[in-house]
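Incident log, structure service

09:12 report received: a user says their structure output differs between two submissions of the same chain.
09:20 pulled the input from the user's history:
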Amino acid sequence: MGTFRVVRTTRAAQVGFLAIDEVELESPDGEPMRRTVVRHPGAVVIVPVEADQATVVLVRQYRVAIGSHLLEVPAGKRDVEGEEPATTAARELEEELGMRAGRMVQLAEFFNTPGFCDEHSHLFVALDLERVDQPSPTSPEERDMTTERVALADVETLISTGTLVDAKSIIGLLLARQFLAGALPGVDAAP
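09:34 re-ran on a clean worker, output below:
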C-alpha cells in the first residue's frame, strides 16, 4: 500500500455542525487528485436492553434526508467539545428515552460512510435501565418520535423484511445480541 499525501485542504462550506472540505492529494504514483469530504463531529449509538435481556427499546423518527420515518436505536451527535463518548451516550439515552443505564458497555467503533464523510461512531449497549425525568423535546422530529419495544430474536426478520434499514441500528442490534449471548467482549464505560 502506497502513501497518499494531502497537498491542500480548503474549507468550502460550514453548515450547522457539518463542514465540507475540498482536499487536494497526490497519489502514491504522483497523480494529483481532488476529493470532497464532509466533516462530522462523530456520533454515539446506544442499544437499550431491557431487564429480560431479550427486548430492546427503539425509536421511530422522521428523517428528512429520506423523507420517511425510520426505526432506529437511539443515537446522537458528539456535539459537546471534549465530552467522552460514554457521557454523550448517557445524555442521549436520557434525552431520547428518559432512561439511565446502570451499566454502559462499549461494543464497537465504526466509520459510517468513509467514502465521503469522516463521521466516527461509538456503539454502546445500555443495561440495567431505570426511568428518569425526560427533558422536553426541542425539535419537531423529537416531538413526533415514538418508542417501540422489539424482541432481539426478531432482528433478522426485521432486516430481511425491510422494516429495519438503518445501518447503525443493524450493526448495534446484531452486536448486542452477540454480547448478551457471551460471544462478544465489551468494554465497561463509565458515563
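09:41 both user submissions now match this output. Likely a transient worker issue. Closing.
09:42 reviewer note: The first strand starts at residue 5 and ends at 15. The helical segments are 85-97, 140-144, 155-160, 167-180.
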